[in-house]
Amino acid sequence: MASYREHALDGAAAVDLVVALYDGIIRFLYSALAAVEHGDIDARRMAVKRALDIIIHLQARLRMDVGGRPAQALSEFYAAIFAQILKASQAASAAQFQHAIDCVRTVRDAWREVARDPNAHATPPQALPLPGADAGPMRAGGRSTWTV
Q1: Residue 68 domain-assigned?
Q2: Where are the alpha helices (DSSP H) in 9-93?
Q3: pTM of this prediction?
Q4: Domain assignment of residue 56, yes or no
Q5: Contact at 8 Å (CB) between 51 and 30?
Q6: Which residues, including other chains, have CB under 8 Å from residue 120's CB and lie 6 or more apart?
Q7: Is 34 inside any structural domain?
Q8: Structure confidence by residue, pLDDT tens digits, 86-125
Q9: Can you tell me the distance from the alpha carbon of 118 to that of 32, in angstroms, rounded to the nearest whole number?
Q10: 102: closest CA among 88, 120, 116, 117?
Q11: I want to staple 88 with a disulfide (CB 3.0 to 4.6 A). Which of 12, 97, 128, 146 is the partner?
């Protein structure tokens, strides 16, 4: 028998599924943060693994040929947040986990804004632009502005 969460996403638009994946990352990062506070190394590692698995999935689903600069920006974000989570786990740092949560929440909130757009529900997630993604996170000279 499938779980309530599985049924809750049946028939969801692609952008809603992306938001749900971000919610999953946040949930697992909170679990990792709680595990740090309780000194539970195994729980921290498991929560980090689950969060990173979602990030890897999101990264693998990007289509640079369709998404252009927004897809590149998301790719850079995923790489940066992946590294931040690894550092937080290695240092067993609640503050670093909280920073990662804040960064993921910011991007999740942008996806929620996209989800509110009725035109977004007909577009595959890899082709959806982020709000304000026209300029992207690139500085002059091609250097990224992502700092997680």
Answers
A1: yes
A2: 14-38, 41-61, 64-91
A3: 0.74
A4: yes
A5: no
A6: 13, 15, 114, 128
A7: yes
A8: 999 999 999 999 999 999 999 999 999 988 877 755 555 5
A9: 35
A10: 88
A11: 97
Q: Is residue 121 a part of any domain in this protein?
A: yes
Q: What is the pLDDT of residue 15?
A: 87
Buried b (16+ CB within 10 A) or exposed e, 13-22: ebbbebbbbb
CA dist., res. 112 & res. 92, Å (int): 30
Distance CA 127, CA 61 (A): 10
Looking at the 3D structure of the chain, how many domains does it have? Answer: 1
User: Could you tell me the mean pLDDT of each successive run of 10 residues in the chain, 148 residues long?
Assistant: 49 82 98 98 98 97 90 95 98 98 96 81 50 40 44
